[in-house]
Amino acid sequence: MGKRKKTSTFLALGSVVLVLVLLGWFLCVIFEGEKPGIALRPLPDFLSGSQEFGLTISDMKRGLRILEVSVKQGRREISVLEKTFPFKGLLNSEGIDRYNTRFSIDPRKLNLAQGRVDLEVRVRDYSRRNGGDGNLSLIQHKMVVDTIPPAIRALSRMHYVNLGGTGLVVYQASSDTVESGLFVNDVFFPGFQTGRESQRGLNVCYFAIPHDTKAQPEIYLWAKDKAGNLSKANFYYHMRRKRFQTERINITDRFLRRILPYFAFCTFDPQLSDIEKFLKINQELRQENNSVFYNLRTETDPKRLWKGTWIRLKNAATMAGFGDRRFYYHKGQKVDEQVHLGVDLASLANSEVQASNNGRVIFRDRLGIYGLTMVLDHGQGLASVYSHLSEIRVAMGQEVMKGEVIGLTGQTGLAGGDHLHFGIMVNGVFINPVEWWDSHWIQDNVTRKLEILDRE
Ligand SMILES: [Zn+2]
């Protein structure tokens, strides 16, 4: 008797414990406190136009109940998205626990005002918590509506630019501008703010009309603000067409025998003949070298470093001009065609080379067909190039003054004799240096335009 009673008491107690445990588990499950997850991308600081967002919400326990997306501006609240997920199966076991969606917010369509706006995402689950409303997850993302493009306008007036030459525009950009400059067709030339605090928004932009521009180019000012709004502005300009010289160059076997040892660093297919090696140098290596020059544009100082007319190699004859089209002949056959992107100046062998203007050394090295080469940055995108040198007398990064001896002429690289190959680049684009040796040209096209900065 005693033993049986003990057993039944034990069973009853066990059942009660079991029921309590089950009830506890059940309550824990239906009243679970885990909030739904929300992942929203991207999270932009500004809204300048229609913006698409990707949203992933999840609730791995009781499942998703409600999703609400809205934008709030002042007292306005605009619903963007609302979705209720059905309750399915025992304890919503067949409900939705993960949901992906995309939505767009267009400040114009929603008639939002400029300024602060909040994007709000609210998600509830099927937990019985919070009086049956479920667990709430909420994220708020602050943005600024800015759909007004920056203002940009040219202050300088007449812009007569030669094909293969340089132009300068002085322009004003509104204070929200973060990047501005000028496009010549699809080539971008950055503008540079002039340093003075009182002149904020005043910019100078040197640009080039590349020598191979076919028709009248489309040239316009361009600005971007921090919200990503873009502006374009036209200004008056006129491009003068220019006829470049042509030159016939005979490649003799003697020339090849003299020149090829210098290019021993090139790994040629041993099957190639000397003229085939020459063509690889003249085409592929030339292109590679020119991209090294182009990449130097990012090294420029935002301030103007140069002053006055530029110096040309003393007592030198011009052996080849900028933009010359060179036709290469071998044994009477035309084998190649290239454009000369600088001016060749010949004086006595190993003549002293002076810095053409104030600047800083941004390149000094052997550079393929150009031989021993040095590049000076003169600020605001302008740079000068000195090639085929026999010696360089300045260090990398060194500041040099106009007229300072920076090296000696030579015939390193692809050079037929001792000469200086001199080039000027505007934001990495080679232009005709002759303009910069002409004080009248500088006065009319640069100095007069820069005087606007003193008047404003
Ligand atoms: Zn040259």
Instruction: Report the bound ligands by name, code or SMILES.
Output: zinc ion
The CATH topology annotation of the largest domain reads as Glucose Permease (Domain IIA)
Q: What do the pLDDT scores average to?
A: 93
How much of the residues is beta strand, in percent? Answer: 35-45%
What is the number of beta strands? 32
End-to-end separation in angstroms reads 113 Å
Shape: elongated
What is the CATH class of the largest domain?
Answer: Mainly Beta
**Rg:** 36 Å
DSSP summary: helix tally: 4
Task: Assign the CATH superfamily of the largest domain.
Answer: Glucose Permease (Domain IIA)
Structural class of the helices, strands and pairings?
A: alpha+beta
Helix share bin: 10-25%
Number of domains: 3
Report what the structure shows.
- The protein is an alpha+beta fold and 456 residues long.
- The chain has three domains: 111 residues, Immunoglobulins (Immunoglobulin-like), CATH 2.60.40; 90 residues, Immunoglobulins (Immunoglobulin-like, Sandwich); 188 residues, Glucose Permease (Domain IIA) (Distorted Sandwich).
- Helices cover 16% and strands 40% of the residues.
- The model has no long low-confidence stretch (mean pLDDT 93).
Describe the SSE topology.
Layout: H1 2-30, E1 37-41, E2 46-47, E3 51-58, E4 64-73, E5 76-84, E6 98-105, E7 115-125, E8 136-145, E9 152-154, E10 160-162, E11 166-173, E12 177-184, E13 187-190, E14 192-193, E15 202-208, E16 219-225, E17 230-233, E18 238-240, E19 246-250, H2 253-259, H3 274-295, E20 317-320, E21 325-330, E22 333-339, E23 343-346, E24 352-354, E25 359-366, E26 372-379, E27 382-389, E28 391-392, E29 399-400, E30 405-408, E31 420-426, E32 429-431, H4 439-455
Parallel strand pairs: 2-8, 10-18, 19-21
Antiparallel strand pairs: 1-3, 3-6, 4-5, 4-7, 7-8, 9-11, 11-15, 12-13, 12-16, 14-15, 16-17, 20-23, 21-22, 23-31, 24-30, 25-26, 25-29, 26-27, 27-31, 28-30, 31-32
The structure holds zinc ion.
Zinc ion (ZN) binds at residues 320, 340, 342, 344, 421.
